[in-house]
Amino acid sequence: MFAEERHRLITEAVETHGKVSVAELSERFAITRETVRRDLALLETDGLLRRVHGGAVGLAAASTREQSHSDRSTLHAEAKQAIARAAQQLLPSAGGSIMLDAGTTTAELAGLIAQQGGEDTLVITHALPIAARISANPQLALEFIGGRVRGLTSAATGAGTVTAYARLRADLAFVGTNALHADFGLSTPDPLEASVKAAMVASAQRVVVLADATKHDELTLVQFATLDQVDTLGTDRAPAGALAAALEAADVDVVLA
Q1: I need a surface site. Which of 76, 87, 104, 138 has the fewest CB within 10 A?
Q2: Coil, helix or strand for 53?
Q3: Strand partners, 222
């Protein structure tokens, strides 16, 4: 295969998947990893991708890039629904207090909780879409944590939101994340969102992270939790490599949807 054709296929792979690795490209094209690295360097010079450790990502995959709640709700919908169903099995049978973070997978879980009901269940959230779903069931108790709402995520943020969570000790928190990494842990692009997520993690007696496989081995700008602060990961594909080893070392239970 000529280099020009290989470069075109690499560029297409980055556009389709958002990220490619040196190892997978080496295997796909039956070339050495050094040749792959030279290809990626040339493509980066041409402004077609951005090299990262172990591979390359698209130019849009910046650490501060963040999609709106409505845009994310249509991405990987089947995986998110499956993760939400698996997470539903982790709910305490006797009710209790449950924190629901902002996010599309947690919103799917909120819909299931609203259908299931439970007079002894208190749901605590700062996310408007989740509050709307929970409030549709009058049997459920809802506590909405206020603050300044970010239009991008439809979630409250700010010092007041963080303080309100810090005063609570819920039985269980379901937390979303933009990225899950062996070394950097859980991260999100926005510092205000990160502060709220960190407060939730610190305030819950048990923390369950819900993240589809596209979040595995990814990094965004602001860390809000380390892996050893997480009790359970709900995902649709088993983590591999360094991430799998790090989760095991941190004693995180992995629940596959």
Answers
A1: 138
A2: coil
A3: 188
State residue 248 phi and psi, 5-degree precision. -65, -40
- Model pTM? 0.75
Show Cβ contacts of residue 16 under 8 Å, excluding neighbours closer than 6 positions: none
Among candidates 231, 226, 232, which has minimal Cα distance to 255? 232
Angle, alpha carbons 88-94-100 (nearest 5°): 45
Degrees, nearest 5: CA angle 77-80-186: 125
* Of 227, 207, 231, 224, nearest in space to 216 by CA: 227
* Structural tokens at position 71: 């845009």
Largest pairwise CA distance in the chain: 66
Question: Are the beta carbons of 50 and 61 closer than 8 angstroms?
Answer: yes
Residue pLDDT, tens place only, 131-171: 999 999 999 999 999 999 988 889 999 999 999 999 999 99
